Amino acid sequence: MRLASSSTNSRSSSHTRRYRTRAPTSEVDETLFGSPKPMPSDRREKPTSKVKDKSPKNPEGETVQIITKDLIRNLRIPWTDPSGESIILPSAEFERITSASRVLTKEEREALKDAYQRKKQEEIKAAEEKKRQICVADMSRKENQILTELELEARDRTQRLLERANTLRMEQEDEVKKLNQLILSAQCQATRDAQIQEKKQIQVELLEEEKRLDAMMEVERRKALETVEQIDELRKQQRISGMQQIYDQIQQRLEEKQLQEEMKEQERQQIRENQERMNLEDLKALEKKRTEQQQLQEEVMRINAETMLAKLQRREEEKLVDMRDMEYIQKKMERDAEYEAEQRRIKKEKELEIARLRARQEKAKDYKAEQDELRARRNQEINDRKWRMKEKELAEKKAQEEAMLRAARLEQVHHKEHLLSIEAGREKAEFERVLKVQQEAVVRQKEEEEKQHHKALRYSDAIRQQMKEREFSAIAKRRDIFKEADQLIEEARQRRMRLDEIKEKKLKELKATGLSEKYCSEVERKARSCIV
Predict the structure, then answer these.
(1) Number of Cβ within a 10 Å radius of residue 175
(2) Which domain of life does the UniProt lineage start with (predicted)?
(3) What pLDDT score was predicted for residue 529?
(4) Dihedral sign for Cα atoms in the order 401, 402, 405, 410
(5) pLDDT value at position 42?
(6) CB of 81 within 8 A of CB of 39?
(7) Does position 235 have pLDDT exceeding 50, yes or no?
(8) At residue 36, does pLDDT exceed 50?
Protein backbone atom coordinates (compact mmCIF):
# COMPACT_ATOMS: atom_id res chain seq x y z
CA MET A 1 0.00 0.00 0.00
CA ARG A 2 0.97 3.64 -0.51
CA LEU A 3 0.88 6.57 1.91
CA ALA A 4 0.07 10.09 0.63
CA SER A 5 0.44 13.03 2.98
CA SER A 6 -2.31 15.59 3.46
CA SER A 7 -0.19 18.44 2.10
CA THR A 8 0.54 16.54 -1.11
CA ASN A 9 -3.09 15.69 -1.56
CA SER A 10 -4.23 19.28 -0.99
CA ARG A 11 -1.61 20.59 -3.44
CA SER A 12 -2.66 18.13 -6.12
CA SER A 13 -6.31 19.06 -5.62
CA SER A 14 -5.46 22.75 -5.96
CA HIS A 15 -3.61 22.01 -9.22
CA THR A 16 -6.62 20.20 -10.59
CA ARG A 17 -8.91 23.14 -9.79
CA ARG A 18 -6.71 25.75 -11.50
CA TYR A 19 -6.95 26.20 -15.29
CA ARG A 20 -4.54 28.25 -17.35
CA THR A 21 -5.50 29.51 -20.81
CA ARG A 22 -2.89 28.57 -23.39
CA ALA A 23 -4.53 30.06 -26.46
CA PRO A 24 -7.72 32.02 -27.29
CA THR A 25 -8.84 29.25 -29.66
CA SER A 26 -8.49 25.49 -29.44
CA GLU A 27 -8.54 22.62 -31.90
CA VAL A 28 -8.52 18.87 -31.43
CA ASP A 29 -6.55 16.64 -33.72
CA GLU A 30 -8.70 13.97 -35.38
CA THR A 31 -6.03 11.35 -34.71
CA LEU A 32 -7.06 11.36 -31.06
CA PHE A 33 -10.43 9.93 -32.13
CA GLY A 34 -8.92 6.95 -33.97
CA SER A 35 -9.73 3.29 -33.43
CA PRO A 36 -8.89 2.01 -29.91
CA LYS A 37 -5.93 -0.28 -29.38
CA PRO A 38 -5.12 -2.39 -26.32
CA MET A 39 -2.54 -0.91 -24.02
CA PRO A 40 0.13 -3.30 -22.74
CA SER A 41 0.23 -3.73 -19.03
CA ASP A 42 4.00 -3.41 -18.78
CA ARG A 43 3.86 0.23 -19.99
CA ARG A 44 1.43 1.34 -17.30
CA GLU A 45 2.73 4.14 -15.12
CA LYS A 46 3.37 3.14 -11.58
CA PRO A 47 1.95 5.27 -8.78
CA THR A 48 4.43 7.60 -7.15
CA SER A 49 2.94 7.70 -3.65
CA LYS A 50 4.43 5.68 -0.85
CA VAL A 51 3.01 2.21 -0.24
CA LYS A 52 1.62 1.49 3.18
CA ASP A 53 -0.30 -1.72 2.56
CA LYS A 54 -0.40 -3.81 -0.60
CA SER A 55 -2.65 -6.76 -1.28
CA PRO A 56 -1.38 -9.75 -3.31
CA LYS A 57 -1.77 -9.65 -7.08
CA ASN A 58 -4.97 -11.03 -8.52
CA PRO A 59 -6.43 -11.23 -12.02
CA GLU A 60 -8.80 -8.35 -11.40
CA GLY A 61 -6.11 -5.76 -10.67
CA GLU A 62 -4.13 -4.04 -7.96
CA THR A 63 -5.67 -2.51 -4.80
CA VAL A 64 -4.11 0.61 -3.26
CA GLN A 65 -5.11 2.08 0.12
CA ILE A 66 -4.70 5.87 0.39
CA ILE A 67 -4.73 7.51 3.82
CA THR A 68 -5.29 11.27 3.96
CA LYS A 69 -5.93 13.69 6.80
CA ASP A 70 -9.64 13.05 6.97
CA LEU A 71 -10.27 9.97 4.81
CA ILE A 72 -9.08 6.41 4.17
CA ARG A 73 -10.06 4.86 0.84
CA ASN A 74 -9.15 1.82 -1.31
CA LEU A 75 -8.51 2.22 -5.05
CA ARG A 76 -8.66 -0.73 -7.41
CA ILE A 77 -6.40 -0.44 -10.47
CA PRO A 78 -7.30 -2.98 -13.20
CA TRP A 79 -4.61 -4.65 -15.30
CA THR A 80 -6.55 -4.11 -18.55
CA ASP A 81 -8.45 -1.14 -19.97
CA PRO A 82 -12.05 -1.53 -18.78
CA SER A 83 -13.48 0.81 -21.44
CA GLY A 84 -11.66 -0.74 -24.38
CA GLU A 85 -11.31 2.72 -26.05
CA SER A 86 -7.73 3.65 -25.20
CA ILE A 87 -5.53 4.79 -28.11
CA ILE A 88 -1.78 4.34 -28.52
CA LEU A 89 -0.08 7.02 -30.63
CA PRO A 90 3.33 6.57 -32.28
CA SER A 91 6.08 8.92 -31.21
CA ALA A 92 6.14 10.70 -34.60
CA GLU A 93 2.40 11.34 -34.47
CA PHE A 94 2.68 12.55 -30.90
CA GLU A 95 5.47 14.97 -31.85
CA ARG A 96 3.41 16.26 -34.77
CA ILE A 97 0.44 16.96 -32.49
CA THR A 98 2.58 18.71 -29.87
CA SER A 99 4.30 20.88 -32.50
CA ALA A 100 0.92 21.84 -33.98
CA SER A 101 -0.44 22.69 -30.53
CA ARG A 102 2.43 25.05 -29.77
CA VAL A 103 1.30 28.66 -29.18
CA LEU A 104 2.94 31.08 -31.61
CA THR A 105 4.75 34.15 -30.32
CA LYS A 106 3.87 37.69 -31.31
CA GLU A 107 6.78 37.93 -33.77
CA GLU A 108 5.81 34.65 -35.42
CA ARG A 109 2.20 35.77 -35.72
CA GLU A 110 3.30 39.08 -37.29
CA ALA A 111 5.59 37.24 -39.73
CA LEU A 112 2.73 34.97 -40.77
CA LYS A 113 0.44 37.97 -41.11
CA ASP A 114 2.95 39.83 -43.31
CA ALA A 115 3.41 36.78 -45.50
CA TYR A 116 -0.34 36.46 -45.85
CA GLN A 117 -0.68 40.16 -46.74
CA ARG A 118 2.06 39.92 -49.37
CA LYS A 119 0.44 36.89 -50.88
CA LYS A 120 -2.90 38.66 -50.93
CA GLN A 121 -1.41 41.76 -52.60
CA GLU A 122 0.23 39.60 -55.25
CA GLU A 123 -3.07 37.87 -55.93
CA ILE A 124 -4.85 41.24 -56.21
CA LYS A 125 -2.22 42.57 -58.62
CA ALA A 126 -2.47 39.43 -60.73
CA ALA A 127 -6.26 39.75 -60.81
CA GLU A 128 -6.06 43.43 -61.81
CA GLU A 129 -3.56 42.66 -64.56
CA LYS A 130 -5.78 39.91 -65.87
CA LYS A 131 -8.79 42.23 -65.73
CA ARG A 132 -6.88 44.92 -67.62
CA GLN A 133 -5.91 42.45 -70.32
CA ILE A 134 -9.51 41.35 -70.65
CA CYS A 135 -10.67 44.98 -70.91
CA VAL A 136 -8.04 45.75 -73.56
CA ALA A 137 -9.07 42.72 -75.55
CA ASP A 138 -12.72 43.67 -75.19
CA MET A 139 -12.06 47.26 -76.31
CA SER A 140 -10.08 46.12 -79.31
CA ARG A 141 -12.88 43.75 -80.20
CA LYS A 142 -15.47 46.50 -79.90
CA GLU A 143 -13.43 48.93 -82.01
CA ASN A 144 -13.05 46.44 -84.81
CA GLN A 145 -16.72 45.50 -84.68
CA ILE A 146 -19.28 47.40 -86.79
CA LEU A 147 -21.66 49.29 -84.46
CA THR A 148 -25.41 49.52 -84.93
CA GLU A 149 -27.39 52.76 -84.88
CA LEU A 150 -28.46 52.33 -81.25
CA GLU A 151 -24.92 51.55 -80.20
CA LEU A 152 -23.67 54.62 -82.03
CA GLU A 153 -26.30 56.76 -80.32
CA ALA A 154 -25.44 55.28 -76.94
CA ARG A 155 -21.76 55.87 -77.59
CA ASP A 156 -22.42 59.51 -78.55
CA ARG A 157 -24.56 60.02 -75.47
CA THR A 158 -21.88 58.47 -73.31
CA GLN A 159 -19.26 60.64 -74.98
CA ARG A 160 -21.32 63.76 -74.32
CA LEU A 161 -21.82 62.81 -70.70
CA LEU A 162 -18.11 62.21 -70.31
CA GLU A 163 -17.30 65.55 -71.91
CA ARG A 164 -19.80 67.30 -69.64
CA ALA A 165 -18.39 65.54 -66.60
CA ASN A 166 -14.86 66.55 -67.61
CA THR A 167 -16.02 70.12 -68.16
CA LEU A 168 -17.68 70.26 -64.75
CA ARG A 169 -14.63 68.73 -63.15
CA MET A 170 -12.37 71.27 -64.83
CA GLU A 171 -14.67 74.04 -63.65
CA GLN A 172 -13.72 73.06 -60.11
CA GLU A 173 -10.04 73.71 -60.77
CA ASP A 174 -8.57 76.75 -59.03
CA GLU A 175 -7.24 78.25 -62.27
CA VAL A 176 -10.63 77.96 -63.97
CA LYS A 177 -12.31 79.45 -60.93
CA LYS A 178 -9.90 82.39 -61.05
CA LEU A 179 -10.58 82.84 -64.77
CA ASN A 180 -14.33 82.81 -64.13
CA GLN A 181 -13.80 85.33 -61.39
CA LEU A 182 -11.83 87.59 -63.76
CA ILE A 183 -14.57 87.35 -66.39
CA LEU A 184 -17.24 88.16 -63.83
CA SER A 185 -15.23 91.08 -62.48
CA ALA A 186 -14.78 92.43 -66.03
CA GLN A 187 -18.49 92.14 -66.68
CA CYS A 188 -19.20 93.82 -63.36
CA GLN A 189 -16.75 96.62 -64.20
CA ALA A 190 -18.40 97.19 -67.57
CA THR A 191 -21.81 97.24 -65.94
CA ARG A 192 -20.57 99.64 -63.28
CA ASP A 193 -19.08 102.03 -65.87
CA ALA A 194 -22.37 102.04 -67.75
CA GLN A 195 -24.19 102.76 -64.52
CA ILE A 196 -21.83 105.65 -63.71
CA GLN A 197 -22.41 107.19 -67.15
CA GLU A 198 -26.12 106.80 -66.72
CA LYS A 199 -25.91 108.41 -63.29
CA LYS A 200 -24.10 111.45 -64.72
CA GLN A 201 -26.80 111.87 -67.36
CA ILE A 202 -29.45 111.66 -64.68
CA GLN A 203 -27.69 114.34 -62.63
CA VAL A 204 -27.66 116.75 -65.62
CA GLU A 205 -31.36 116.18 -66.16
CA LEU A 206 -31.99 116.73 -62.45
CA LEU A 207 -30.19 120.09 -62.56
CA GLU A 208 -32.31 121.27 -65.47
CA GLU A 209 -35.44 120.13 -63.70
CA GLU A 210 -34.40 121.98 -60.53
CA LYS A 211 -33.92 125.22 -62.49
CA ARG A 212 -37.38 124.89 -64.02
CA LEU A 213 -38.86 124.21 -60.60
CA ASP A 214 -37.08 127.26 -59.14
CA ALA A 215 -38.67 129.52 -61.76
CA MET A 216 -42.08 128.07 -61.06
CA MET A 217 -41.55 128.53 -57.33
CA GLU A 218 -40.65 132.22 -57.83
CA VAL A 219 -43.92 132.83 -59.69
CA GLU A 220 -45.83 131.03 -56.99
CA ARG A 221 -44.04 133.08 -54.32
CA ARG A 222 -45.11 136.36 -55.87
CA LYS A 223 -48.68 135.18 -56.12
CA ALA A 224 -48.53 134.15 -52.48
CA LEU A 225 -47.27 137.61 -51.44
CA GLU A 226 -50.21 139.28 -53.14
CA THR A 227 -52.58 136.88 -51.44
CA VAL A 228 -50.98 137.61 -48.07
CA GLU A 229 -51.43 141.37 -48.53
CA GLN A 230 -55.10 140.89 -49.31
CA ILE A 231 -55.48 138.69 -46.26
CA ASP A 232 -53.79 141.32 -44.06
CA GLU A 233 -56.22 144.00 -45.27
CA LEU A 234 -59.16 141.78 -44.51
CA ARG A 235 -57.78 141.03 -41.06
CA LYS A 236 -57.34 144.77 -40.36
CA GLN A 237 -60.96 145.46 -41.20
CA GLN A 238 -62.01 142.51 -39.06
CA ARG A 239 -60.00 143.89 -36.11
CA ILE A 240 -61.68 147.29 -36.40
CA SER A 241 -65.13 145.75 -36.42
CA GLY A 242 -64.14 143.52 -33.54
CA MET A 243 -62.98 146.48 -31.46
CA GLN A 244 -66.34 148.22 -32.01
CA GLN A 245 -68.16 145.12 -30.90
CA ILE A 246 -65.98 144.89 -27.78
CA TYR A 247 -66.73 148.52 -26.88
CA ASP A 248 -70.45 147.89 -27.23
CA GLN A 249 -70.15 144.82 -25.03
CA ILE A 250 -68.28 146.84 -22.35
CA GLN A 251 -71.06 149.44 -22.23
CA GLN A 252 -73.64 146.73 -21.94
CA ARG A 253 -71.70 145.09 -19.12
CA LEU A 254 -71.48 148.37 -17.21
CA GLU A 255 -75.23 148.83 -17.39
CA GLU A 256 -75.79 145.27 -16.21
CA LYS A 257 -73.36 145.81 -13.33
CA GLN A 258 -75.20 148.93 -12.19
CA LEU A 259 -78.49 147.04 -12.16
CA GLN A 260 -76.88 144.27 -10.13
CA GLU A 261 -75.58 146.80 -7.57
CA GLU A 262 -79.06 148.20 -7.08
CA MET A 263 -80.48 144.72 -6.61
CA LYS A 264 -77.78 143.88 -4.07
CA GLU A 265 -78.57 147.05 -2.08
CA GLN A 266 -82.20 146.05 -1.91
CA GLU A 267 -81.22 142.56 -0.75
CA ARG A 268 -78.99 144.02 2.00
CA GLN A 269 -81.86 146.23 3.23
CA GLN A 270 -84.12 143.22 3.39
CA ILE A 271 -81.48 141.27 5.32
CA ARG A 272 -81.14 144.07 7.93
CA GLU A 273 -84.87 144.12 8.51
CA ASN A 274 -84.95 140.38 8.91
CA GLN A 275 -82.05 140.55 11.38
CA GLU A 276 -83.83 143.10 13.57
CA ARG A 277 -86.95 140.98 13.62
CA MET A 278 -84.96 137.91 14.60
CA ASN A 279 -83.22 139.82 17.42
CA LEU A 280 -86.61 140.76 18.92
CA GLU A 281 -87.68 137.16 18.81
CA ASP A 282 -84.46 136.10 20.54
CA LEU A 283 -85.03 138.58 23.37
CA LYS A 284 -88.50 137.22 23.95
CA ALA A 285 -87.18 133.66 24.03
CA LEU A 286 -84.43 134.61 26.49
CA GLU A 287 -86.93 136.20 28.87
CA LYS A 288 -89.07 133.10 28.74
CA LYS A 289 -86.04 130.93 29.45
CA ARG A 290 -85.12 132.96 32.52
CA THR A 291 -88.61 132.53 33.92
CA GLU A 292 -88.43 128.78 33.41
CA GLN A 293 -85.03 128.61 35.13
CA GLN A 294 -86.41 130.46 38.19
CA GLN A 295 -89.22 127.96 38.47
CA LEU A 296 -86.80 125.06 38.10
CA GLN A 297 -84.55 126.41 40.86
CA GLU A 298 -87.46 126.66 43.27
CA GLU A 299 -88.41 123.06 42.49
CA VAL A 300 -84.83 121.91 43.15
CA MET A 301 -84.76 123.61 46.55
CA ARG A 302 -87.97 121.88 47.55
CA ILE A 303 -86.61 118.49 46.48
CA ASN A 304 -83.38 119.07 48.46
CA ALA A 305 -85.36 119.78 51.64
CA GLU A 306 -87.30 116.57 51.24
CA THR A 307 -84.08 114.65 50.66
CA MET A 308 -82.47 115.96 53.88
CA LEU A 309 -85.48 114.90 55.88
CA ALA A 310 -85.32 111.40 54.41
CA LYS A 311 -81.61 111.13 55.28
CA LEU A 312 -82.27 111.97 58.93
CA GLN A 313 -84.92 109.28 59.14
CA ARG A 314 -82.60 106.72 57.54
CA ARG A 315 -79.84 107.50 60.07
CA GLU A 316 -82.19 106.83 62.98
CA GLU A 317 -83.14 103.50 61.49
CA GLU A 318 -79.47 102.55 61.01
CA LYS A 319 -78.71 103.24 64.65
CA LEU A 320 -81.49 100.88 65.73
CA VAL A 321 -80.15 98.17 63.42
CA ASP A 322 -76.61 98.55 64.84
CA MET A 323 -77.87 98.12 68.39
CA ARG A 324 -79.65 94.89 67.45
CA ASP A 325 -76.46 93.61 65.77
CA MET A 326 -74.39 94.25 68.90
CA GLU A 327 -76.78 92.27 71.01
CA TYR A 328 -76.66 89.35 68.56
CA ILE A 329 -72.83 89.34 68.51
CA GLN A 330 -72.67 89.34 72.31
CA LYS A 331 -74.95 86.34 72.51
CA LYS A 332 -73.00 84.50 69.85
CA MET A 333 -69.72 85.00 71.70
CA GLU A 334 -71.22 83.55 74.85
CA ARG A 335 -72.44 80.48 72.94
CA ASP A 336 -68.99 79.99 71.37
CA ALA A 337 -67.28 80.08 74.77
CA GLU A 338 -69.61 77.42 76.11
CA TYR A 339 -68.99 75.25 73.02
CA GLU A 340 -65.20 75.49 73.38
CA ALA A 341 -65.34 74.49 77.03
CA GLU A 342 -67.42 71.44 76.11
CA GLN A 343 -64.94 70.50 73.37
CA ARG A 344 -61.98 70.72 75.76
CA ARG A 345 -63.74 68.43 78.20
CA ILE A 346 -64.46 65.86 75.44
CA LYS A 347 -60.85 66.00 74.22
CA LYS A 348 -59.51 65.39 77.71
CA GLU A 349 -61.73 62.35 78.12
CA LYS A 350 -60.53 60.96 74.76
CA GLU A 351 -56.88 61.38 75.74
CA LEU A 352 -57.46 59.42 78.91
CA GLU A 353 -59.12 56.63 76.92
CA ILE A 354 -56.21 56.52 74.48
CA ALA A 355 -53.71 56.23 77.32
CA ARG A 356 -55.57 53.22 78.71
CA LEU A 357 -55.60 51.57 75.25
CA ARG A 358 -51.87 52.15 74.78
CA ALA A 359 -51.10 50.48 78.07
CA ARG A 360 -53.04 47.42 76.97
CA GLN A 361 -51.23 47.34 73.60
CA GLU A 362 -47.80 47.47 75.26
CA LYS A 363 -48.60 44.42 77.30
CA ALA A 364 -49.78 42.48 74.19
CA LYS A 365 -46.72 43.60 72.24
CA ASP A 366 -44.25 42.23 74.81
CA TYR A 367 -45.80 38.75 74.59
CA LYS A 368 -45.75 38.77 70.80
CA ALA A 369 -42.10 39.82 70.74
CA GLU A 370 -41.15 36.85 72.89
CA GLN A 371 -42.96 34.48 70.55
CA ASP A 372 -41.29 36.05 67.47
CA GLU A 373 -37.85 35.75 69.00
CA LEU A 374 -38.43 32.06 69.71
CA ARG A 375 -39.55 31.39 66.15
CA ALA A 376 -36.58 33.31 64.72
CA ARG A 377 -34.13 31.28 66.80
CA ARG A 378 -35.64 28.04 65.52
CA ASN A 379 -35.50 29.23 61.87
CA GLN A 380 -31.85 30.23 62.28
CA GLU A 381 -30.94 26.77 63.48
CA ILE A 382 -32.72 25.18 60.50
CA ASN A 383 -30.91 27.48 58.05
CA ASP A 384 -27.54 26.69 59.65
CA ARG A 385 -28.10 22.98 59.20
CA LYS A 386 -29.05 23.47 55.52
CA TRP A 387 -25.95 25.61 54.87
CA ARG A 388 -23.63 23.02 56.40
CA MET A 389 -25.17 20.26 54.26
CA LYS A 390 -24.82 22.40 51.13
CA GLU A 391 -21.16 23.16 51.85
CA LYS A 392 -20.48 19.47 52.31
CA GLU A 393 -22.09 18.62 48.96
CA LEU A 394 -20.11 21.34 47.19
CA ALA A 395 -16.84 20.05 48.65
CA GLU A 396 -17.60 16.51 47.47
CA LYS A 397 -18.53 17.75 43.99
CA LYS A 398 -15.35 19.83 43.74
CA ALA A 399 -13.21 16.82 44.66
CA GLN A 400 -14.89 14.73 41.95
CA GLU A 401 -14.32 17.45 39.33
CA GLU A 402 -10.64 17.75 40.25
CA ALA A 403 -10.21 14.02 39.87
CA MET A 404 -11.88 14.12 36.44
CA LEU A 405 -9.65 17.03 35.36
CA ARG A 406 -6.49 15.18 36.36
CA ALA A 407 -7.59 12.17 34.35
CA ALA A 408 -8.41 14.35 31.33
CA ARG A 409 -5.00 16.06 31.53
CA LEU A 410 -3.22 12.71 31.53
CA GLU A 411 -5.24 11.62 28.51
CA GLN A 412 -4.44 14.87 26.66
CA VAL A 413 -0.72 14.42 27.33
CA HIS A 414 -0.76 10.90 25.90
CA HIS A 415 -2.76 12.07 22.86
CA LYS A 416 -0.40 14.98 22.24
CA GLU A 417 2.64 12.69 22.35
CA HIS A 418 0.96 10.43 19.81
CA LEU A 419 0.19 13.39 17.52
CA LEU A 420 3.75 14.67 17.78
CA SER A 421 5.11 11.32 16.68
CA ILE A 422 2.73 11.28 13.69
CA GLU A 423 3.64 14.87 12.79
CA ALA A 424 7.35 14.05 12.90
CA GLY A 425 6.80 11.25 10.40
CA ARG A 426 4.83 13.57 8.14
CA GLU A 427 7.49 16.28 8.28
CA LYS A 428 10.16 13.77 7.32
CA ALA A 429 8.12 12.60 4.34
CA GLU A 430 7.43 16.22 3.35
CA PHE A 431 11.14 17.06 3.51
CA GLU A 432 12.03 14.16 1.24
CA ARG A 433 9.29 15.16 -1.20
CA VAL A 434 10.42 18.81 -1.29
CA LEU A 435 14.01 17.74 -1.89
CA LYS A 436 12.93 15.62 -4.82
CA VAL A 437 10.82 18.45 -6.25
CA GLN A 438 13.73 20.88 -6.02
CA GLN A 439 16.01 18.49 -7.86
CA GLU A 440 13.41 18.09 -10.61
CA ALA A 441 13.02 21.90 -10.78
CA VAL A 442 16.77 22.31 -11.32
CA VAL A 443 16.65 19.84 -14.20
CA ARG A 444 13.64 21.60 -15.73
CA GLN A 445 15.34 24.98 -15.40
CA LYS A 446 18.35 23.74 -17.34
CA GLU A 447 16.11 22.39 -20.06
CA GLU A 448 14.21 25.69 -20.17
CA GLU A 449 17.45 27.65 -20.55
CA GLU A 450 18.46 25.48 -23.49
CA LYS A 451 15.05 26.05 -25.08
CA GLN A 452 15.37 29.81 -24.59
CA HIS A 453 18.79 29.75 -26.24
CA HIS A 454 17.46 27.90 -29.28
CA LYS A 455 14.47 30.23 -29.38
CA ALA A 456 16.74 33.30 -29.37
CA LEU A 457 18.69 31.86 -32.30
CA ARG A 458 15.49 31.28 -34.25
CA TYR A 459 14.30 34.78 -33.41
CA SER A 460 17.54 36.38 -34.68
CA ASP A 461 17.24 34.41 -37.93
CA ALA A 462 13.66 35.60 -38.33
CA ILE A 463 14.73 39.22 -37.72
CA ARG A 464 17.41 38.98 -40.41
CA GLN A 465 14.87 37.53 -42.83
CA GLN A 466 12.44 40.36 -42.06
CA MET A 467 15.15 42.96 -42.64
CA LYS A 468 15.90 41.49 -46.05
CA GLU A 469 12.22 41.45 -46.94
CA ARG A 470 11.84 45.07 -45.85
CA GLU A 471 14.81 46.11 -47.99
CA PHE A 472 13.23 44.45 -51.01
CA SER A 473 9.93 46.14 -50.17
CA ALA A 474 11.63 49.56 -49.90
CA ILE A 475 13.24 49.10 -53.31
CA ALA A 476 9.89 48.19 -54.82
CA LYS A 477 8.27 51.22 -53.18
CA ARG A 478 10.93 53.56 -54.60
CA ARG A 479 10.30 52.17 -58.05
CA ASP A 480 6.58 52.74 -57.59
CA ILE A 481 7.25 56.32 -56.43
CA PHE A 482 9.34 57.09 -59.55
CA LYS A 483 6.67 55.60 -61.74
CA GLU A 484 3.99 57.61 -59.96
CA ALA A 485 6.06 60.81 -60.39
CA ASP A 486 6.19 60.24 -64.15
CA GLN A 487 2.46 59.74 -64.19
CA LEU A 488 1.93 62.97 -62.22
CA ILE A 489 4.08 64.93 -64.67
CA GLU A 490 2.10 63.59 -67.60
CA GLU A 491 -1.18 64.38 -65.85
CA ALA A 492 0.02 67.93 -65.11
CA ARG A 493 0.91 68.46 -68.80
CA GLN A 494 -2.49 67.22 -69.94
CA ARG A 495 -4.18 69.35 -67.31
CA ARG A 496 -2.29 72.42 -68.57
CA MET A 497 -3.46 71.72 -72.11
CA ARG A 498 -7.07 71.38 -70.96
CA LEU A 499 -6.82 74.62 -68.99
CA ASP A 500 -5.46 76.47 -72.04
CA GLU A 501 -8.33 75.15 -74.13
CA ILE A 502 -10.88 76.23 -71.53
CA LYS A 503 -9.25 79.68 -71.29
CA GLU A 504 -9.41 80.23 -75.04
CA LYS A 505 -12.99 79.02 -75.13
CA LYS A 506 -14.11 81.32 -72.33
CA LEU A 507 -12.34 84.35 -73.84
CA LYS A 508 -14.08 83.71 -77.14
CA GLU A 509 -17.41 83.44 -75.36
CA LEU A 510 -16.66 86.71 -73.53
CA LYS A 511 -15.91 88.53 -76.79
CA ALA A 512 -19.02 87.03 -78.34
CA THR A 513 -21.16 88.69 -75.65
CA GLY A 514 -20.30 92.10 -77.18
CA LEU A 515 -18.19 93.32 -74.29
CA SER A 516 -15.79 96.18 -74.99
CA GLU A 517 -12.34 95.28 -76.27
CA LYS A 518 -10.77 97.12 -73.37
CA TYR A 519 -12.28 94.75 -70.82
CA CYS A 520 -11.58 91.68 -72.95
CA SER A 521 -7.89 92.54 -73.29
CA GLU A 522 -7.68 93.24 -69.55
CA VAL A 523 -9.19 89.82 -68.77
CA GLU A 524 -6.83 88.13 -71.21
CA ARG A 525 -3.82 89.82 -69.66
CA LYS A 526 -4.82 88.84 -66.12
CA ALA A 527 -5.63 85.29 -67.25
CA ARG A 528 -2.11 84.89 -68.66
CA SER A 529 -0.60 86.14 -65.41
CA CYS A 530 -2.69 83.86 -63.14
CA ILE A 531 -2.59 80.72 -65.34
CA VAL A 532 1.08 80.04 -65.83
Answers:
(1) 18
(2) Eukaryota
(3) 64
(4) negative
(5) 42
(6) yes
(7) yes
(8) no
